[in-house]
UniProtKB/TrEMBL annotation:
It comes from Candidatus Limousia pullorum. GO terms for biological process: DNA replication; DNA synthesis involved in DNA repair; double-strand break repair; SOS response. InterPro entries: DNA-binding_RecF, DNA-binding_RecF_CS, P-loop_NTPase, RecF/RecN/SMC_N, RecF_2. The keyword DNA repair applies. The gene is recF. This is DNA replication and repair protein RecF. Belongs to the RecF family. Gene3D superfamilies: P-loop containing nucleotide triphosphate hydrolases, RecF/RecN/SMC, N-terminal domain. Signal peptide: none annotated. ATP binds at G30, E31, N32, A33, Q34, G35, K36, T37. Keywords: ATP-binding, Cytoplasm, DNA damage, DNA repair, DNA replication, DNA-binding, Nucleotide-binding, SOS response.
Length: 373
């Protein structure tokens, strides 16, 4: 996918206008609170119809604006296409968001199928720093964007898990319900086996790509290793065999589950390990190393997106250059030419490292093209 033109009107603090980005790296610089992240958010929204910052649709509408309108022309699936999304600030419309692809009303899911983007924001450092839930969400979200069926299985698993957990809380009061637990165990493990298999296969591929990117980002000084962590054997097992292993573990821990009132085994409890040179990136990595780890994961996600869908995603890097040394900055600015990249930065000196691409300045929401290299 290549973004050819982006128009914005009434979106966040951006002054009504447009940009025509370059095919390779696009640097957007300016002081804090001028609209750099809002511009990246606009690109992301056009690739999935929601904000990567967790904002509600109505919050994307600028102050004193009746609605926000985003329009983009892009090249995807071997042809030039266009998308328009209208957002409304009030509740007086049944639908607060309208999506038109090639002038035809479409759903957000249909938009995702035609577009693709990968985003890094400072909040993504929680992938390394925080608990397992953030890493599970990253893996699940990446797979969902590339395999629609995975999202369906994940939804069914979470629903079944909630029902089993509710049953665990009820059994101490109603012992006769114990007989029904086995039914939920079987259903949960069948779905869990499918999820774990998809995660393991994806992480194996992700690890190979991330290792290569991290080697480039660190100039060969660091080796990154990504592995899947669950509490039972998974090596070379089919999804059915994984379901059987999970069922064994689940039944062995039923007493503990009843005491806790929730399910202690399954993909909802698993983790993703990240190591740099054999030690935990979370516990021992520096700020720069942790940032490089997440960047490697994001670039690896982009490559896997291309391998699975046949389309290059747009890569959005928000405030990525801070806390990276010059060699790591140079890699991101000049050695990611396989993708159309948008990078925001505050330091004007950062843009001087760019050898091939376009440079935009944003000031109080107004975007201007400064140079094209």
């Amino acid at each position: 996918m290549k973004l050819l033109k982006l128009n914005f009107k009434g979106f966040r603090n951006l002054e009504d206008g447009f940009i025509e980005p370059g095919e390779k790296v696009n640097v957007i610089y300016g002081e804090n609170a001028q609209g750099k992240t809002n511009l990246l958010e606009a690109v992301w929204v056009l690739c999935g119809a929601h904000s990567f910052r967790g904002a509600k649709d109505s919050e994307l509408v600028g102050f004193n604006s009746e609605k926000a309108r985003l329009y983009a022309e892009f090249y995807s699936q071997n042809r030039v296409q266009n998308v328009q999304i209208n957002f409304y600030p009030t509740q007086n419309k049944k639908d607060k968001k309208e999506i038109l692809i090639n002038a035809i009303p479409k759903s957000a899911a249909e938009l995702v199928e035609k577009t693709g983007a990968v985003v890094f924001s400072p909040e993504d450092l929680t992938l390394v720093k925080s608990g397992p839930a953030f890493r599970r969400k990253f893996i699940d979200s990446a797979i969902c964007r590339q395999k629609v069926k995975y999202a369906s299985v994940l939804g069914k698993y979470n629903k079944t898990l909630n029902q089993r957990n509710a049953l665990l809380k009820d059994i101490p009061k109603h012992r006769e319900l114990m007989e029904t637990l086995e039914i939920w165990d079987t259903a949960l493990c069948s779905l869990g086996g499918l999820l774990i298999k998809e995660r393991i296969d994806y992480i194996k591929k992700l690890n190979l790509c991330a290792e290569e990117y991290h080697d480039g980002i660190s100039s060969g000084r660091e080796v990154l290793k990504i592995t899947y962590d669950t509490n039972f054997e998974t090596e070379n097992l089919t999804s059915q065999q994984l379901a059987e292993e999970m069922l064994k573990k689940l039944r062995a821990g039923v007493k503990e589950d009843l005491m806790r009132g929730y399910t202690g085994t399954g993909p909802h409890r698993d983790d993703v390990n990240m190591e740099i040179n054999g030690v935990s990136a979370r516990n021992f990595g520096s700020q720069g190393q942790q940032r490089s780890t997440v960047l490697s994961l994001k670039l690896a996600e982009a490559r896997l997106h291309r391998e699975i869908t046949g389309e290059n995603p747009i890569v959005l890097l928000d405030d990525v250059l801070s806390e990276l040394d010059n060699s790591r900055q140079d890699y991101l600015l000049n050695k990611t030419e396989n993708y159309q990249v948008f990078i925001t930065c505050c330091e004007e000196s950062n843009k001087e490292q760019l050898k091939n691409g376009r440079i935009f300045k944003i000031d109080r929401g107004k975007v201007r093209l400064m140079s094209s290299l």
